[in-house]
Amino acid sequence: MIPNHVLIIGPPSSGKLRIADHISKSDASSTRSTVDEKSHSGIIQITSLSTKYYTLSLKLMIDEYPSSRNHSLTNEGYIQKLKDWKEEFFTEEMGELREALDGVIFTFNMNTYQSNFLPNLLNEIDEIRARLEQEGNTGGFLAVVGTVPTGEGAELFRMEAIEDEVTIHGIEFINFEKSGTNEYRERVGKDRLVELFETHDWTNMELLGEDHSKYQESRVSKLQEMQTSLLNESERNIDLEQMFSKINLARENASSLPQAEREKYAKEIVDEFMEFI
């Protein structure tokens, strides 16, 4: 099966390998190339992803800036290394790779938030996204995953401020230190990362015909149930207040996204409402 390509890029100690392992945890046959202590650039993890509706192959490509861990850099120095990486990424020689990407995940250590690292990082990501869109590469997902080095902790107020700052840029933020669901029954943290992969419209995937048909039948059935409930005044099973709150939150989130991501986000919300009903 032709693999789908996802790039995981970040500075040292920002959780790149942990993220790759989490995505691959359901695949016991997942393999990873040799890890060099001097650099995590060029590591490739081959894995697979299966849901009720499809199965696919994934090639997780890990890159790091700087390309060697022999540097002792300031936050400004790391941003400069990211700029150097960006210019190489947009060379003609890398054009084929850019076209093949289904997603890019930028990682960073949330305990660096008190410096000016995050604002500068987001400015670079904005430019990378804009240049990809100029090339017509609008089908892939883009996310920022915040991590904390093993054994360290991050304060709640800091995590909330980070999420707010990333969201303002119209970029999805995933707090890798969280898991489960929020008050709106939306997946967060590690579980949202898995959901991001499971709900993406992959370039290469093998649909499971029978289950896919059952999925479509289930959607039609849920629509009919919804129509019956709305027409029957005695039905009070739908928590309208909760639904309206979720709609308002989704509208606020979508307003800050680019058009291509907004349409994809809207489709995901519709699917979630179908499950909710």
UniProtKB/TrEMBL annotation:
Belongs to the IRC6 family. It comes from the Eukaryota. The lineage of its organism: Eukaryota, Fungi, Dikarya, Ascomycota, Saccharomycotina. Keywords: Chromosomal rearrangement. PANTHER family: INCREASED RECOMBINATION CENTERS PROTEIN 6 (PTHR28043). This is Increased recombination centers protein 6. Involved in gross chromosomal rearrangements (GCRs) and telomere healing. The keyword Phosphoprotein does not apply. Signal peptide: none annotated. InterPro entries: Irc6. It comes from Candida orthopsilosis (strain 90-125). GO terms for molecular function: protein-macromolecule adaptor activity. GO terms for biological process: vesicle-mediated transport.
